[in-house]
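Comment thread on ticket #2218

A.B. wrote:
> Attaching the input chain for the structure job we discussed in standup.
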Amino acid sequence: MRLTDLLHPHLDGITSVVDATDGGLRLEPYLHLPPGIELRRHEQPVGEGELVLLSYGPQSALHGDEADCRAVLERMRPGGRGLIVFGHPGPELPYHRLLDSLVAHNCQVLRAAALDYAHLHAGAVFACTDELLPPHDWFGRPVPAEGLATALRIAGEYVLADLVSRSLRARLLDLEDTAEETARALDAVRQDGLADRLAAAVREKEQLSSALRRARGRVGVLEARVAMLEGSTSLRVGKALVTAARSPKRGAVRLPGELYGMWRQRKGKGRKRPAEAVVRPQSAVARPQTAREPDLPADDRLHLTHRALSVGPRDRLVITGVLTDRAAEDFAADAVVSRVLPHDGHVLLERTDPDAFVVQLSACAGPDGPWSLTGTALAPDLDRRLAELVGQARASGRPAVLWRDGPAACAPGLAQLAWDAVIDADAGVRLSRLDPVADGRERLREAFAQDSTRVRLARLARLVGAPDPLDRRRVAVLAAPGDRADVARLVAQALGQLHRPAEVVVPDPKELDELTAAGVAVHTGPPTAPWIADWSDLSEDRPDTLLLDLMCAQEYSGADAVGHTPAADDYAFVPVLRPLLVRRSLLMAGAPPDTWSREGYRLFAVRGKEPS
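C.D. wrote:
> Ran it. Output below, let me know if you need it in another format.
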């Protein structure tokens, strides 16, 4: 809830709002007071027609402290109202510290609600009164009750709410204890897994060192044999005969001289003293004796042939694993996907350097596919190969994730492997596989928010610490508010969107603190989000589903720009439209919108109004 939603229903009869907050908190940009209500500061009593603002939170320099709030409550007079905002999270709200002071100064709390800000988590509206006032519902409307009925209602709601809250608090404590135990168990498992990976790495290093020593010894023997063969008389005689045969005219004349020279060299070698060094072959003599060439181990591993190379930061999730055809196709829209086969899994896992090694249960338990029957004890070779791949992934520091999109009984052997994480969900649905006419707009919105493949991959990315695919849904709003009314309208429209924008780009970021507190970045300069919505005309009415429907249409179509057409085309590619959502790279190119289609960009139209 926004602060205006909590405050404005209680402004009837109010002519001035008194800001009594201390510290660094500035509430004026959050209020958006209607005309005729003045915001001011004073230290006089607060009475009829006035509403005072207080704040209390864990950071006294920002929110103020308990003593400041009590000092303001002493200034309350009958007819005065107040709004207190809390910096404490809801479960940690210390309302009991102020409740006695509220009662002592005849202040009744009329309404309390949670706030959707980073440093303000709750707020409460109270009034100083000489008689019991009727409470307010969630929408800020007084509940019709008077006198004894109001007291009975408040007393009954207090008892019943306390009953529910006690059970919820007990449940919360149990969950916190369970979470702590699980965290300790996971830490122990991670430590054990780290030790296992370290031991496996040491064993692999020893095996490689032993293989390297054997290879070097073998190379030395082969070099000695080659040197001996190159210096043998038989090889030299054979070379001379082959040369003479290739060129009989010249070779036949030179052959007797060469053979005689070989005989003289052999005879001279026999008369050498034993202490003299043996003449080395010419290839060995040519090597410098001062600089020894390094011994390079032979690499007999298979290498993959990469057809493309990209150098840059990794901004997409990289998955290598055992996947079905459909899951691999759907995942490839938002991630880099490599499917392993039983014969190339080790090499592919090593060369692709994935963020996670993912094994989909339906790819193992299905009736066909290269990994069919894995985990069912009917294909022991496949079970062994998959266990080796899981061990290799964990030894290399890559999480091994089981995507359990079916009953575990279909492949019970998979549960015996050492997984770093398990995802119990289906692979989701790509929006392009839905039918907007048959499934309806609500189904598209539901799939976009909860059931889409991108949402499933975002869950995997959070588990393994990879780039979040949902970052591709970030929207930047371009606006230029002129006055306070435009600022209030911009804040209301931005925070009211079901698909809230990630950033708002304006010429002057003043008076937009509420957007920043709600988690929306406000800045000047070029936008950074992948998608841009132009809200230059703030007088236009924008429904809360606008950005949601535009992003649903974009993800369904893969278009570069989405908007409306005069003919009210719905879910159709068109040559020209009024752009409402544009890819940032397209907008930064500076080309006029009427030329986008001719330049190869895809334009997708959605209906401007909701169907009746």
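A.B. wrote:
> Thanks. Noting for the ticket: Confidence is low (pLDDT under 50) at residues 272-310.
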